[in-house]
Amino acid sequence: MKKRIFLSLFALAGFCSANAQSYLGYVHDNYAGVQSVLYNPASIVDSRFKTDINLFSTSSSVTNDLYGVKIFDVFKDGYDFDLEAKKSFSNANNAAFNTDVMGPSVMFNIAPKHSLAVFTRARAFLNVVDVNGKVINDITKDNSSSFPSANVGSLNGVGNSWGELGISYAAVLYQRGQHFLKGGITAKYLQGIANYHLQANGVTMAYNENVILPQNSTYTTTGSVVYGSSQDFAANSDLDIDSKSRGFGVDLGLVYEWRPEYTADRADINDLKEVNKYKLRFGLSVTDLGSMKYAKGVRNMYDLNKTITQANYDNADSFDEFLKNNYTNVPVNGTVRSYLPTAIHADVDWNIHNKFYLNAIGDIGVVSKTKLNQNSIANRVSVTPRYESKWFSAYMPISYMDYSKQAQVGLGLRTGVFFIGSGSILSNVVSKNSKAADIHLGVKIPVYQKKAKDQDGDGILDKDDECPTVAGPVENKGCPWGDRDNDGILDKDDKCPDVAGPAANKGCPWEDKDKDGVLDKDDKCPTIAGPKENAGCPWPDTDGDGVLDKDDKCPKVKGTLANNGCPEVTTEVIKKLNDFSKSILFDTSKATIKAESNAKLEEIVKVMNEYNTANFKLEGHTDSTGNAAKNLQLSKDRAAAVKDYLIAKGISAERLSSEGYGITKPIASNKTVEGRAQNRRVEIILVK
C-alpha cells in the first residue's frame, strides 16, 4: 500500500539523470558517418563517405547509484527487484534513463572541403538528483506498518521528450602542411512532445498503516513542491502534441588533425579521401545549446502540509488529479520552458599503428542540475581501443561516469550496413552489482569515397598528374625531369640547361672572366688577371719598395732591389752599433758584462732587429797591459759573451759570429790611460 503512493508521487523522476553520450564508442569511428554529427558537427567534412544514409538507429541507457543487480537476472520470471537487488542508500541517490532514436538521416559532400548533414531524431531525457534513498528503503518495506517523519530530499526532477530536425554544415577551416583544422555547426528545430518537472522544497513524509481499514491508512506530508507539465494532464490525460510547443538548439564543434605523413614529396596526401591521414586527432564541441517552450504548459506550487489517506489516492485517476484534489495549489506564472542538457565534449584519437586506434573522451555538463526544468548530463570519461577498417570495426569502451560510480566495459561491432554495441555489456556479464546498462544499434547505407587513381604509382593522383603513365616528382607535376644538354645534370638542378657543363658548376661551363688563362674555379682573383703560379692573382708588393713579395726577402719592410727588398745596413748604422758597443763594460780581467751595460745592449738588439737579414761579426779587443796570451783569450770570451746576450734576446745565432784579437788591433796608444780604455772594446762588423 505504501509503495503505491510513494512510487506514484515520484514516478516523474524514476530517480534519473541522463547519460553523457549516445552511441558510446561508436561515434568516434572514422566510419561512424552521420551519427558522428551528434557528438561533433565538424566530423562530417573530409570524411570517408561520399554519402552516409541512416535508415534507423537507437541508443538507450539506464544507470543509478541505488540498486545493483546481476543484469540478466532482471529479465527472469519471478525476479523480485526489491528483495534481490543490492542496495546502496544515501541521503542523495540518483539513477538514469536515456533514449535516443535517429530516424532517416543523411550526410553528403557539397564540395571537396564542405559537407552537409540532415537528420531526424527523437530523444527522451529523465533527470532527478538528490533523492533520499533511505526514505525509499523505508517505504518499500511491506512488513513495516509505519515509519517516522523523514526528509524526502531536495530533489529536482525533469522528464522531457522531443523531436529534432537538424541540419549541419562543416568546412575545412585551415590546411597547411601537417596541420588540418575543420569546424562545424548544427542548427536544430525542436518539437516538444511531453514534459514533466518537479522541484521539492523541505518535503517530509510520515506513514501510519491502518490494518483493519487499509483505505484509512494515513500519509502526513510537509513542505511544498513546484510541479509542472507540458499540458494539463488532470483535465486531459491523453498526450496532446502541440505544434506550437517548439524551440531551437545549436551544436558547435572543432576538429584538429596532425598529419605527419604530409611532406614535400607527399603534398597530395590531403586529397586522399578514402584513407585516414592523421596520427593524432583532437576534437572539441559544445552540444545542446537551446531550449523549447510548451505553449499549453502548466505549472503549480503545491502546499504539502497535510495528512491524506490511501482512499484519497485510490480515488484519483492520475497523479495530476491526485495533487489537484488533495493539496492547495497556486499557479506559477511564466511560460513552461524546458532547457536542453548543454555539455562540452573533448576527445583525443590516436592512430597507434595502421588500423589500430585509441580514443579518450571527456563529457562535462555545464548547466546547473538544480535549475527548474533543466535537463543535464552525467559527467563521463572513457577510453576506447578500436580496430577500424572500411567494412568492419570493433571497439571496446572503458568508462566511468557520475552516479553509477563504477567502471563499465563494453563491446561494439560495425559491419558496413549494420552496427551494434554497448558501453557496459562485458562488465554486466561478470558483475553481480551492475548499476548501469546501455545498448545501441543501427542500420544504414554507406557510400564510401572511391580510391583515387595513380597509374604510375608516383604518389600523385592522375587528376593532378601531367604525366599519369610515367612516374615523376610532385615538383614537376608528376613528370620525370629532363636533361636537354645531356650533361648528366637534370634540368631542375642545371643552371645552364641548354649548355653542357660539369656538376661542380651546377651544369654550366667554367668561365675565365679576367682572361688570364686560369679558370674561375681555380682563380683566387677571378676578375683580375694574374699568373697561374699565384693562383690567378697578380703578385703583390706589400711594402711598396718595387720588389715583388715573391722576390722580397723583407716583404713587409721597404728595402732595395740590390738587397733583395731588404733595407741595407749603412756606414752610419754600423757606426751607431759601435757607439753602443764601445759603452759595454766588463768586470776587470773577466768576460762578465756589467749590469749598467744592458741599456746599450738593448739598443743594439733593436737595430739588429730592424735589419733582420744582415749578418754581423763581434770582434773583441784588449789593451797591452798584462800577458798577451791571456788578453787574447779574454777578448774572445768578451766577444762571445756579447754574442750570447744578443742570442738570448732573440737575435738568430745564424746571423752572429764572434772572434777575439787580444792586443793586436789597437785603435789608440797603450801608453795613456785614455788610449788603453779605447783599445778595450767589442766592435760590430757587417758581414757581407
Automatic annotation (TrEMBL):
Keyword presence, Membrane: yes
InterPro entries: Bact_OuterMem_StrucFunc (IPR050330), DUF5723 (IPR043781), OMP_bac (IPR006664), OmpA-like (IPR006665), OmpA-like_sf (IPR036737), Thrombospondin_3-like_rpt (IPR003367), TSP_type-3_rpt (IPR028974)
Pfam families for this protein: DUF5723, OmpA, TSP_3
GO cellular component, one term: cell outer membrane
Main location: membrane
Location in the cell: Cell outer membrane
SUPFAM superfamilies: OmpA-like, TSP type-3 repeat
Record key words, sorted: Cell outer membrane, Cell projection, Cilium, Flagellum, Membrane, Signal
OmpA-like domain boundaries: 573-688
The keyword Lipid metabolism is assigned to this record: no
One term of GO molecular function: calcium ion binding
GO biological process: cell adhesion
Cleavable signal peptide: 1-20
Gene3D superfamilies membership: OmpA-like domain (3.30.1330.60), TSP type-3 repeat (4.10.1080.10)
PANTHER family according to UniProt: LIPOPROTEIN YIAD-RELATED, STATOR ELEMENT OF FLAGELLAR MOTOR COMPLEX
Name this protein carries in UniProt: Flagellar motor protein MotB
